[in-house]
């Protein structure tokens, strides 16, 4: 039997459904592929002790508690000057990517920051005029794709030419029919003066939507954020991703090759080809109107808006919310 130290969100929803059905813990463990002690520990830790959730295991509460623990754990690790100096050395001298730098710290059992934090630092320094960041303005040039940004004029002339691009008309029929989980539309919602953005990813079947802040639309940073979300969701759940022809998505093939996710691109200047995510962005704009400086919006606010979008009843779902629709899909998957 395969064992996992950490439960994924989908495994927690499976535990909730099976536990409510009266399934024994040993059988739950077998069905979701973990050790029975993992299930036992999860139920003890996240079964309500009092109030409306007394004696009830809630996957949502368990996931929220896990995220909060991780948030507090990350909060304790500051990106100190000593860590920045080490990162500079690995970037400039060893040409390590932020992913490899973060892995080095983990390998050495040293407390370091995530690769997303390193990317944020690099792109912030590139655009900043603050004296404390002057020495780091050129760090982006040490990224594998950093120097390519100097050819931006050529990119503009070849806006629709993306490496290994597959047009949307080759997308499987099942994607169009919204018959399964994991067919994702991806787009950027730009902030004030196009200086920052939100990465918005929407599942076509359930309308579940995720939102992540991007300090810029550099392709390397966009790829890193998409990969971060894929890891959080669980790569096995995602079947396809559909993008528009923005060069921010130029590294789609690296995501495809890493996770086995098929990638497709809309017709140029045809927003209706990704109307699902466009619709969700329209809802987000109600909270963050055009002209909003996204640099001034903190992660907690973004998370709260995401929660509101995903808990908003949908008429075509008979007024189920996207979260409830997602749970219904997972229930069917367990039964069948």
Automatic annotation (TrEMBL):
Boundaries of every Integrase catalytic domain copy: 168-330
UniProt protein name: IS30 family transposase IS4351
InterPro entries found in the cross-reference section: Homeodomain-like_sf (IPR009057), Integrase_cat-core (IPR001584), IS30-like_HTH (IPR025246), RNaseH-like_sf (IPR012337), RNaseH_sf (IPR036397), Transposase-Integrase (IPR051917), Transposase_IS30-like (IPR053392)
Alphabetized GO MF terms: nucleic acid binding; transposase activity
Swiss-Prot/TrEMBL keywords: DNA recombination
GO CC annotations, alphabetized: cytosol
Source species: Dyadobacter helix
Matches recorded under PANTHER family: TRANSPOSASE, TRANSPOSASE INSI FOR INSERTION SEQUENCE ELEMENT IS30A-RELATED
GO process annotations (BP): DNA integration; DNA recombination; transposition
Record lineage: Bacteria, Pseudomonadati, Bacteroidota, Cytophagia, Cytophagales
Any Pfam family hit: HTH_38
């Amino acid at each position: 039997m395969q064992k996992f130290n950490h439960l994924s969100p989908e495994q927690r929803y499976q535990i909730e459904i099976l536990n409510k059905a009266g399934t024994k813990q040993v059988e739950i463990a077998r069905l979701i592929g973990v050790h029975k002690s993992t299930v036992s520990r999860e139920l003890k830790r996240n079964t309500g002790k009092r109030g409306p959730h007394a004696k009830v295991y809630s996957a949502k509460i368990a996931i929220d508690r896990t995220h909060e623990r991780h948030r507090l754990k990350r909060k304790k690790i500051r990106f100190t000057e000593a860590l920045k100096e080490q990162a500079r050395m690995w970037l400039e001298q060893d040409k390590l990517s932020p992913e490899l730098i973060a892995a080095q710290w983990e390998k050495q059992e040293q407390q370091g920051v995530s690769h997303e934090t390193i990317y944020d630092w690099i792109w912030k320094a590139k655009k900043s005029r603050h004296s404390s960041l002057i020495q780091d303005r050129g760090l982006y040039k040490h990224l594998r794709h950093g120097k390519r940004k100097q050819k931006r004029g050529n990119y503009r002339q070849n806006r629709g030419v993306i490496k290994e691009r597959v047009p949307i008309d080759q997308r499987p029929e099942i994607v169009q029919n919204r018959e399964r989980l994991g067919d994702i539309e991806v787009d950027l919602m730009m902030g004030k003066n196009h200086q920052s953005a939100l990465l918005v990813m929407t599942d076509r079947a359930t309308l579940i939507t995720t939102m992540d802040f991007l300090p810029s639309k550099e392709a390397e940073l966009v790829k890193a954020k998409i990969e971060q979300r894929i890891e959080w969701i669980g790569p096995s759940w995602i079947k396809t991703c559909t993008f528009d022809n923005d060069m921010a998505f130029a590294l789609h093939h690296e995501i495809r090759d890493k996770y086995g996710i098929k990638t497709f691109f809309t017709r140029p200047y045809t927003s209706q080809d990704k109307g699902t995510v466009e619709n969700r962005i329209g809802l987000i704009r109600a909270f963050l109107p055009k002209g909003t400086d996204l640099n001034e919006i903190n992660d907690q606010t973004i998370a709260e808006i995401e929660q509101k979008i995903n808990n908003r009843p949908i008429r075509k779902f008979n007024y189920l919310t996207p979260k409830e629709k997602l749970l219904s899909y997972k229930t069917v998957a367990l039964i069948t």
